[in-house]
From TrEMBL:
It comes from Eumeta variegata. Keywords: Secreted, Signal. The keyword Signal applies. Pfam families: MRJP (PF03022). This is Protein yellow. Residues 1-18 form the signal peptide. InterPro entries: 6-blade_b-propeller_TolB-like, MRJP/yellow-related. It is found in: Secreted. It comes from the Eukaryota. One of its GO terms (cellular component) is extracellular region. SUPFAM superfamilies: Calcium-dependent phosphotriesterase (SSF63829). Belongs to the major royal jelly protein family.
Length: 451
């Protein structure tokens, strides 16, 4: 039974946890709901085809309840997509849905697109999904690492790391699999962690974090020709020694995890009247938030220019009070993120100075234990996954207590994918606007000839 708890948010906590500067500009923050628990589970279970199937999976260790953890979350239509990465054995399905509207406080997960599409060892199926995104066109972008058992002694690279696309608007849920080339990422060491999607007039791009222990970096994927390249920067993408120790509710663990969460800012107008956006990112083992313009990342030559090529373009925005896993930006440029060691959900309006503009919006050491991913629905609500990942890592998951929660708050926000472009942008060659302008000029020329 979910307790009718409203999680503590704010003003005093923000004053205690963030630096202040009376001279710094602060955008007004609308009145909003505090975060509340909408779903919680001691153990994650699935909608099985039959009770006999469940018993078979249990008896053959294809379903080990304490190894099943929710990580990513995204919204489309009447469903929340949730990811269940196969970090350990016994995860029957790695991508599933649950309803947005509550009918059960601990709903069973429905494998998506189907049970068959989640079969381990079938390279036409999903193997290890850490995160997904739904773009403004209704396309589901899925990161499939292809490698399972990442928390075991012998991870198994069963299939090539891939981007999988599903057009949700048709209802057919057909998967288009695009393997990422081995000269871009190493299938045996890569860990595709998070992604954002940039729907542009001329193309669609995805920016993806690879927090590989050996070769961390940002992968850029261009949809039109299915080309990918990887850009590296050791100074901003690798873990920092001073941030590798995590302390959560009496548990201490060391994690040297590289570039992890990322977020995409709203479109902005450049001096040349082009559209650009800012990509924000942080290693898990770091207190810093970094930023780089996406126009820089889309320059393929930087992937070939070596380790220092990106350095002059990266901006260190300042430090946070603790380490961050998941983060997401809304359409207005407000960043939502977790502070793991502080049991906190925070936000920052990107029009302000990061060093003085951070705000605590919820804090609770019982209900907020390891903030993972965020998503927004179409009614102004933000959702966040709390998954106590540190318990799974340290093999201390107890099925007698709540391990996973989804919290919700009405903020009036919508996802960054719906951010509007500023007025005054010049048309992109090949776009509908450019074609319309060309036809107008042609008609004008014809009129003059006929006059």
């Amino acid at each position: 039974m979910i307790a009718p708890l409203v999680l503590a948010a704010v003003a005093l906590a923000a004053a205690a946890s963030a630096q202040t500067d009376d001279a710094a500009p602060r955008a007004s923050v609308p009145r909003r709901e505090q975060f509340r628990v909408i779903y919680e589970w001691n153990v994650i279970d699935y909608e099985w085809a039959s009770a006999e199937d469940r018993e078979i999976y249990l008896n053959t260790s294809r379903y080990i309840p304490k190894n099943v953890l929710i990580s990513g979350i995204n919204f489309y239509g009447g469903n929340l997509f949730v990811t269940v990465p196969r970090m350990l054995e016994g995860v029957p399905a790695t991508l599933a849905t649950i309803p947005v509207q509550q009918s059960d406080t601990a709903p069973r997960l429905r494998p998506f697109p189907s049970w068959a599409a989640n079969a381990v060892g079938d390279c036409a199926a999903l193997q290890f999904v850490q995160n997904v995104e739904v773009d403004r066109n209704g396309t589901l972008w899925i990161l499939d690492n292809g490698r399972v058992g990442t928390l075991t002694q012998n991870p198994d690279a069963k299939c090539p790391p891939s981007i999988v696309l599903i057009d949700l608007t048709t209802g057919k849920n057909e998967m288009e699999r695009i393997p990422l080339p081995a000269d871009v990422i190493n299938p045996k060491t890569t860990y595709l962690n998070d992604l954002v999607v940039d729907n542009r007039h001329d193309d669609d791009y995805a920016y993806i974090t690879d927090n590989s222990a050996d070769d961390p970096g940002l992968i850029v994927f261009r949809r039109s020709d299915k080309k990918a390249w990887k850009i590296r920067d050791n100074s901003s993408m690798r873990s920092m020694p001073e941030a590798t120790t995590f302390r959560i509710n009496g548990t201490v663990l060391n994690l040297s995890v590289n570039i992890d969460g990322l977020a995409l800012g709203p479109p902005m107008l450049t001096t040349n009247a082009d559209i650009d956006r800012t990509l924000y990112y942080s290693p898990l083992a770091s207190y810093h938030l970094y930023a780089v313009n996406t126009s820089v990342l889309r320059n393929e030559s930087l992937a070939r220019a070596g380790q220092n090529a990106l350095r002059s373009y990266v901006r260190d925005l300042g430090t946070k009070a603790s380490q961050t896993d998941g983060m997401k930006m809304d359409a207005a440029g407000v960043l939502f993120y977790g502070l793991i060691g502080n049991s906190t959900i925070a936000e920052w309006n990107s029009t302000t100075d990061f060093r003085t503009g951070q705000r605590t919006i919820a804090r609770d050491p019982t209900y907020i234990q390891w903030v993972d991913r965020f998503t927004f629905d179409d009614r102004g609500n933000v959702y966040v996954v709390i998954n106590r990942l540190y318990k799974l890592i340290t093999n201390k998951v107890s099925l007698d207590e709540v391990n996973y929660r989804i919290l919700k708050s009405h903020t009036g926000s919508k996802s960054y994918v719906w951010a509007e472009e500023p007025a005054g942008a010049r048309p992109v060659p090949g776009s509908a606007v450019a074609h319309a302008a060309s036809w107008s000029l042609l008609l004008l020329a014809c009129a003059r000839v006929l006059a």
